[in-house]
Amino acid sequence: MLATGAVAGGDKEHSMTSADQKFDQLDENQDRSLSKSEAAADETLSATFASIDADGDGELSRSEFTAHLAESEGQSESDWSDQDQGESDWSAPAGQE
């Protein structure tokens, strides 16, 4: 079990490194924030920019960017588990179980 935890921790560290690398790649002027024009290089990021910009300053900080990625990863995992758990609810209409 300890090995599994170590692997899972390593994956999280790897994804954070990937997030940092992606942020640095998008931050063309290296001012430690992403403007709307810099975010435009990533179609998904550009489309969700306003919802990610938590403080509404028109730029994405590294923490806003990484928080969004962490949330996105968590939602995609929970969507699968929610779907698996909800299948029994879809098998029969209410009252016809």
Q: How would you describe what is shown here?
A:
The chain has 97 residues and is mainly α. It has a domain at 21-77: Recoverin, domain 1 (Orthogonal Bundle). The protein is 69% helix and 4% strand. It has a two-stranded antiparallel ribbon with strand order 1-2. α1 packs across α5 (62-90). The radius of gyration is 18 Å and the shape is globular. Residues 1-10 and 78-93 have low confidence and may be disordered.
Question: Main attributes?
Answer:
97 residues, mainly alpha, Recoverin, domain 1, two-stranded antiparallel sheet, 5 helices, 2 strands, globular, disordered N terminus
Percentage of residues in DSSP E strands: under 5%
CATH fold descriptor of the domain at 21-77: Recoverin, domain 1
What structural class is derived from the secondary structure elements? mainly alpha
Residues in helix, %: 55-70%
Order of the strands making up the biggest sheet: 1-2
- Strand and helix order: HEHHHEH
Number of helices: 5
Gyration radius, in Å: 18 Å
Number of strands: 2
Shape: globular
Largest sheet descriptor? 2 strands, antiparallel
Show unreliable segments: 1-10, 78-93
What is the distance, rounded to the nearest whole angstrom, between the alpha carbons of the first and last residues?
Answer: 39 Å
| Reported CATH architecture of the domain at 21-77 | Orthogonal Bundle
Determine the mean pLDDT: 76
Tell me the name of the CATH class of the domain at 21-77: Mainly Alpha
